[in-house]
Amino acid sequence: MSTRTFRKAVPTDAPTCIDIRARTRENAFSEEELRALGITVDTWSEGIRDGSSPGYVCCVDDQMIGYCFGDRDTGEIVVLALLPEFEGQGIGRALLQRVVDDFRAAGFQRLFLGCSADAAVRSYGFYRHLGWVSTGELDEIGDEILEFRLG
User: Closest Cα partner for 117 from 142, 97, 98, 95?
Assistant: First the structure.
């Protein structure tokens, strides 16, 4: 039987996070595409190290299979990624909840994220099912801004 564990991300997780991001079923980004956005192993590691990009990872039998990260200063959920073979098991929800709980403890009243406005995309229903609500705004890449009120 597989052992599933959740833990806070550490700087040495960054290379695996980048690898997983390229292997997600929807909204995948290759290492090259991330680099073009200014996201590298070094910048990701530094964000974890300095606390500006706090996050959690999920491991199955000590192999990372997913993660969620936020922006400590804004309350944005920056990324939630999971290998396709682990979808539908509550792992994404559990990762997101850990980051939400940390932001709540830090005093945030409102969190936000960018999500596809296409109802056919899994994330569209996923976040709404968990109580995230559209703000009616779009971000710079055309994703819909969703918010989650705390407290």
Answer: 142
Structure tokens given for 86: 């682990």
13 vs 141, residue with greater confidence = 13
d(CA 48, CA 55): 7
pTM: 0.93
pLDDT in tens, 13-40: 999 999 999 999 888 888 888 888 888 9
